[in-house]
Design brief:
Blueprint: H1 15-23, H2 29-33, E1 39-41, E2 60-67, E3 72-76, E4 79-88, E5 91-98, H3 103-106, E6 112-122, E7 125-134, H4 136-142, E8 147-149, H5 158-170, H6 184-189, H7 195-203, H8 208-238, H9 251-258, H10 265-279, E9 285-290, H11 296-309, E10 313-317, H12 321-337, E11 344-347, H13 353-365, E12 370-373, E13 387-392, H14 400-407, E14 414-419, H15 425-431, E15 436-440, E16 451-455, H16 460-472, E17 476-480, H17 495-506, E18 515-518, H18 524-535, E19 541-544, E20 557-562, H19 570-577, E21 588-592, H20 598-609, H21 613-624, H22 649-665, H23 675-687
Parallel strand pairs: 5-7, 9-14, 9-15, 10-12, 10-13, 11-12, 13-14, 16-21, 17-19, 17-20, 18-19, 20-21
Antiparallel strand pairs: 1-8, 2-4, 2-6, 3-4, 4-5, 6-7
Amino acid sequence: MTEASPITDIKGIGPKSSENFTRAGIHTVGDLIRYYPRSYDSLDAPVMAGSLSVLDDGKTVAVEGMAGKALSVRYLNTIRITTGKILSGGVSLDVTWYNMPYMRNQVHPGTVYLFRGRIKAKGDRIFLQQPKVYDLFDYEQLRKTLQPVYPLVKGLTENALRKALKEVFFGSNHIELSDDPFPDSMRREYDLSGKKEAVRGIHFPEGREALERCRRRLVFEEFFYFILMLKRLRKSRGERENGYRLAACGETGKVIQSLPYELTGAQKRVWSEISAGLFSGKVMARLVQGDVGSGKTIVAFLALIQCASNGMQGALMVPTEVLATQHCSAFKKMCSQAGLSIETVLLTGSMKAAQQREAYAKIESGQALVVIGTHALIQDKVRFRSLALVITDEQHRFGVHQRQTLEEKAKSPHTIVMSATPIPRTLAVILYGDLDVSVIDEMPSSRLPVKNAVVDPSYRPKAYQFIARQIQEGHQAYVICPMVEESEEIEAENVVDYTDTLRQELRRYHPHVCVEYLHGKMKNSEKLSVMERFASNQIQVLVSTTVVEVGVNVPNATVMMVENAERFGLAQLHQLRGRVGRGTAQSYCIFLYTIESDEVKKRLAILASSNNGFEIAQRDLELRGPGELFGVRQSGEIGFALADIYADADVMKAASEAAVRILKEDPELSDPSHRMIAEELSRLQKEGEGHSTL
């Protein structure tokens, strides 16, 4: 089989089971081998139940024992709970599984197994939650290896992934990987392992040192192709250096005067830099970087108004429909308050066909001077009459290719990309090598710093009481859960069940409180409806996955509570925290962790002690160390599958050096030694049309 082979070519994967892989975006064998582990698990020595206590709450342990009698299965609403007792060294220990009734047939009374799961304490009792069950010999063999842990979706299990990957690499019809695209000289100079070795080793590591070497090769490769794309983008922009020269106008001044607040010094400075670019007559390409809540959006709105006042079109592309709708509404309101009449249209993928056709017509005729939408803006049907400015918000959610596609809908448009990801300037120059950098490094004076608390589950009742008091005062709250539904593989809070629980708890204080949930699997119309009702305070508490992370603005929300906070990266938690503290009232963030470990406490303490994204990123890097593979990654949201822009900064610099050198020697990548690099770059560009990996 080859990378292009469908996954149904893998032994054991039929049409039915392939649906589980498809939900994870795995359609081909190539997709599967690039479905990298999110972390690795090393199995500890087994213990006896007598050595455990309530102080071990949250720890993952392997307990040697046997069931004295058959397990039992009972129902609690729609949840099937399998329970039993295991005898370990003369001590009895309760075990529990959720939605895994088949465990009853897998655990045979009288047979000794290793039960590996998380200790859960209730009062002075402890039990083992959701343990995996191993044969003693198998467990001892696995202890000698690192076990990859993969991101899962409903229906897709670790076992299914590992079995498929084993078949791909070691089965009778194993994959024939293509030759290494990097020349031997390049691999020697940068001390890179071979591509085949790296791809196989990331899934089947032979030890930590070998894993680090395989991972370094793949990280180098991610950075290398990303930077190649950026350099080509800058080159194409340089070939059309002359851009639209926009004239100064009074409309932006009217808007600034009509704002209910004064722009910060940083906002004024960045707006001055953008204005100079728009007036220069040369193509402006600028990154506007600023921490969450620093006020990047208003600067983007001013640029759109400047463009429209010159009779030219401007487009703002954002990653979610909820955010696009909110931005469109906010832009229209701001213009109305300043007495401006600017035709503005919204364009998203879920709009009805008639609405989309109307938007297309207004855009093509030039009637719509401002267009705000999602990636629907880059569809072939969207044709601009006079597009002079392209703005990409939360740009890490879009690929280089998507950004370029929107820019190519005009002759030589000015470009602004905005990011709240706290990246040091030295790294930003590499990551955004095609852009000039402006930084909004000052928060609005009216905003009070968010007060933070890092707590364990025992604090949950107090947190509910605190949320209830905030609702009593007329405010609102977010509660973030890491999952949408109950998982067979992962024990973590989920929005669907949690909403029911929280609703019951809060109605003890407020009989009519409205608690609803939001997650990415809902229809766009449902998500928009929920956010509109939350924004208007018809919903007081919103239980959500991280879908609210990007840009949603509800100034009345004063509490952000994050369940299972240890499951998120610090940069992501900081982004989530940015959803509160957006009004004038004091706001609060409660980080609740369920795994009791010094490492978790240290990481979360960084958030508790600082509201500065740049400082958080730097301190987290210092805590993890530059070579740490097994902590929570920070930059997954930037679009890299493996690379961490902080921990892998040195690799990024080396990859940048290699990319620059190759393009200097062979700008068109036409040399035979670079043929495979050109082919891989082409493949990634095509893949980027639908994904944000590069």
